[in-house]
């Protein structure tokens, strides 16, 4: 028996939260972005999320964000969905970025909860509705209270699900019960935004994942979903467990995933470049730990 998620995946199932490659001088590396995007799609990604947290959106300009979408669209064509991160702390600015992403060729936008100002739930709802009303693009809400300081509460999610262009959620809430409540009451397509939750959320009806670890191991994570879809839940669980040391090394070692992903990509010879300040590169001990975790995962054969 095969598995079908309860929500249709509007942007595919296996999405990578792609890093933004820079040159050694710190400029946007569009050629590197095109080569990285092409590799990620060839190795199993259905979609790419650009200019999100992992894509260093706080330190890229509006023009760079639009240029990145255009370049990646040229590289991948219609082989993958492109979701552009447009979230800011300012509703007006977020609307402007949404319109620019639409012009640049994005298939959807990722809209994070406005940060720092900590708006109440009614203000959050109004913010997301204004952004969704501004363009023809479908919207993926980004719930990550650990960074923004504000949760999109389940009841707010349920109300927002009634908007025709609010179709998906990148879930970094760490509230498994709250997520299941929304899944049971709406048709929103949930994407695990924390790699350790890929299988757990998928098993209760999520659409897939938006993964930072997929920058370095796209086929390994895609294999988890493929095994579950084929009805082989034991293999899916084994593959999730097998990926755990790399997930922990990249996402729970005290450094942002951007830093660890770029360090490992550089080691593997893929486009990455430096991070922009205030982020700093990983030290040698961290890089050594990342290499060890990656080598352990990839020593287990091509996909299993």
TrEMBL record:
PROSITE patterns: DHDPS_1, DHDPS_2. It is found in: Cytoplasm. Keywords: Amino-acid biosynthesis, Cytoplasm, Diaminopimelate biosynthesis, Lyase, Lysine biosynthesis, Schiff base. InterPro entries: Aldolase_TIM, DapA, DapA-like, Schiff_base-form_aldolases_AS, Schiff_base-form_aldolases_CS. Pyruvate binds at residues 54, 210. One of its GO terms (biological process) is diaminopimelate biosynthetic process. One of its GO terms (molecular function) is 4-hydroxy-tetrahydrodipicolinate synthase activity. It catalyses: L-aspartate 4-semialdehyde + pyruvate = (2S,4S)-4-hydroxy-2,3,4,5-tetrahydrodipicolinate + H2O + H(+). Pathway: Amino-acid biosynthesis; L-lysine biosynthesis via DAP pathway; (S)-tetrahydrodipicolinate from L-aspartate: step 3/4. It is an enzyme of class 4 (lyase). The active site is at 142 (proton donor/acceptor), 170 (schiff-base intermediate with substrate). CDD domains: DHDPS. Its EC number is 4.3.3.7. The keyword Membrane does not apply. The record marks 53, 116 as: Part of a proton relay during catalysis. GO terms for cellular component: cytosol. Belongs to the DapA family. Catalyzes the condensation of (S)-aspartate-beta-semialdehyde [(S)-ASA] and pyruvate to 4-hydroxy-tetrahydrodipicolinate (HTPA). Homotetramer; dimer of dimers. This is 4-hydroxy-tetrahydrodipicolinate synthase. It comes from Streptomyces actuosus.
């Amino acid at each position: 028996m095969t598995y079908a998620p309860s929500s249709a995946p509007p942007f595919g199932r296996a999405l990578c939260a792609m890093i933004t490659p820079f040159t050694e001088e710190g400029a946007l590396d569009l050629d590197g972005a095109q080569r990285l995007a092409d590799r990620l799609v060839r190795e199993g990604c259905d979609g790419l999320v650009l200019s999100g947290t992992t894509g260093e959106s706080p330190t890229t300009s509006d023009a760079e964000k639009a240029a990145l979408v255009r370049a990646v669209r040229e590289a991948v064509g219609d082989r993958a969905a492109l979701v552009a991160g447009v979230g800011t702390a300012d509703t007006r600015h977020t609307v402007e970025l949404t319109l620019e992403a639409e012009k640049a060729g994005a298939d959807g936008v990722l809209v994070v909860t406005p940060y720092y100002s900590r708006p109440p739930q009614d203000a959050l709802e109004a913010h997301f509705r204004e952004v969704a009303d501004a363009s023809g693009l479908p919207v993926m809400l980004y719930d990550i209270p650990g960074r923004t300081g504000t949760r999109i509460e389940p009841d707010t999610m349920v109300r927002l699900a009634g908007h025709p262009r609010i179709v998906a959620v990148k879930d970094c809430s760490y509230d498994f019960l709250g997520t299941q409540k929304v899944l049971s009451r709406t048709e929103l397509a949930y994407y695990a935004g924390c790699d350790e939750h890929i299988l757990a959320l998928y098993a209760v009806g999520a659409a897939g994942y938006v993964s930072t670890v997929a920058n370095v191991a796209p086929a390994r994570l895609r294999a988890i979903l493929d095994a579950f879809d084929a009805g082989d839940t034991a293999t899916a669980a084994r593959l999730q467990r097998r990926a755990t040391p790399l997930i922990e090394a990249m996402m729970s070692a005290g450094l942002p995933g951007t830093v660890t992903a770029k360090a490992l990509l550089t080691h593997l010879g893929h486009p990455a470049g430096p991070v922009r300040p205030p982020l700093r590169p990983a030290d040698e001990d961290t890089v050594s730990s990342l290499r060890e975790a990656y080598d352990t995962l990839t020593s287990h054969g091509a996909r299993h």
